[in-house]
Design goal:
Layout (H helix, E strand, L loop, with lengths): L7 E6 L7 H11 L5 E6 L5 H7 L5 E6 L7 H4 L2 E2 L1 H6 L4 E4 L5 E4 L2 H12 L10 E4 L3 H12 L5 E4 L3 H11 L3 E3 L14 E4 L23 E4 L8 H8 L3 E3 L2 H7 L1 H8 L7 H8 L1
Parallel strand pairs: 1-2, 1-3, 4-6, 7-8, 7-10, 8-9, 10-11, 11-12
Antiparallel strand pairs: 3-5, 5-6
Helix pairs in contact: 1-11, 5-6, 5-9
The structure holds NADP nicotinamide-adenine-dinucleotide phosphate.
Length: about 280
């Protein structure tokens, strides 16, 4: 790219209109006075390969990738980071100066940074974690909890085979708990994560019994609409430290912005307010 070219980034997927990423990145661009733009792009699967070939020529330095392209994009990229390979999906592409497309997955990074910022004394090694859900988000959560030194991960999911698949992949630190007894895994857990869509506006209610939750646990919910989910509201009411899911969305955006625009942006309350508007 020539020096005079204005760097462009964006998010590709379908549907894309609901994405909070444009508001997030545009806030950072304005705040740091960076000459650049971030645009949402509705791209269907049939056009994905052509779009990835064309975007760098149009001045794009990279894009975020969302549903339904997060898995297939690994086949389109020239280079795949270790963490994207472990997750089997990517959410961030960097169009390198040498023409290569680098795919990364920053969800696990965002998950850990959000916990570190929201509950600064949280310690992954302090005891077992209980994780609800076994989809793509749970994969990022489990992988990063293991990286952070969590000694044991109790995992429960409505569809047990999905949880068993993650156990096979991540090994014996993961223990699968039957969905009907999911509440039991909260007993003694020092980290509790909802990585399912339960509790999200318009989705089914979280019905996992929470009586065994200890007030010394740090509880986080990946769902951020509503910001305070019923799980977080209950956890807060008994004295747990709680961390909402919006911060994960904000933190996962940091590595992409830094690679594209050359500055590591801050995640703070001003950003949260900008994204929530
Ligand atoms: P996914 O792959 O579609 O997985 C959905 C999960 O929710 C599965 O475990 C699924 O269980 C469970 N589930 C859905 N409906 C259920 C029901 N009625 N009863 C019991 N379990 C149910 O989705 P994902 O990508 O993992 O995302 C999960 C949630 O995390 C979503 O709400 C997403 O918005 C959120 N998320 C947030 C962030 C963030 O930055 N904060 C990042 C990624 C994802 P089955 O396997 O039985 O279907």
């Amino acid at each position: 790219m020539t020096e005079n070219r204005i760097p462009l980034a964006g998010v590709i997927g379908t549907p894309i209109a609901h994405s909070k990423s444009p508001r997030l990145h545009q806030h950072w661009l304005r705040r740091y006075g960076i000459r650049g733009h971030y645009v949402p792009m509705e791209i269907v699967s049939a056009d994905l390969d052509d779009a990835i070939a064309m975007l760098p020529k149009l001045g794009f330095v990279g894009v975020n990738v969302t549903i339904p392209h997060k898995e297939h994009i690994l086949n389109v990229a020239d280079l795949v980071s270790d963490r994207a390979a472990v997750m089997g999906s990517a959410n961030t592409l960097i169009f390198r100066a040498d023409g290569k497309v680098h795919a990364d997955n920053t969800d696990g990074y965002g998950f850990l940074e959000n916990l570190k910022q929201g509950a600064p004394d949280w310690d992954a090694t302090s005891g077992p974690a209980a994780v609800i859900g076994a989809g793509g988000a749970a994969r990022a959560v489990i992988s990063s909890l293991i990286d952070a030194g969590c000694p044991e991960i109790r995992l429960s999911n409505r569809t047990k085979t999905r949880a068993e698949g993650l156990r096979q992949e991540f090994g014996t630190k993961v223990e699968v708990v039957d969905w009907v007894t999911a509440g039991n895994m909260l007993d003694g857990a020092t980290t509790v994560v909802n990585a399912s869509s339960l509790g999200m506006t318009g989705a089914a209610e979280m019905r996992v019994p929470l009586d065994a939750l200890s007030k010394s646990a740090v509880v986080t919910d990946l769902v951020y609409a509503p910001l305070e989910t019923p799980l977080l509201a209950y956890a807060k009411s008994i004295g747990c430290r709680t961390v909402d899911g919006l911060g994960m969305l904000l933190h996962q955006a940091v590595p992409g912005f830094e690679r594209w625009f050359g500055l590591r942006p801050d995640v703070d309350d001003e950003l949260r307010q900008a994204v929530l508007q």
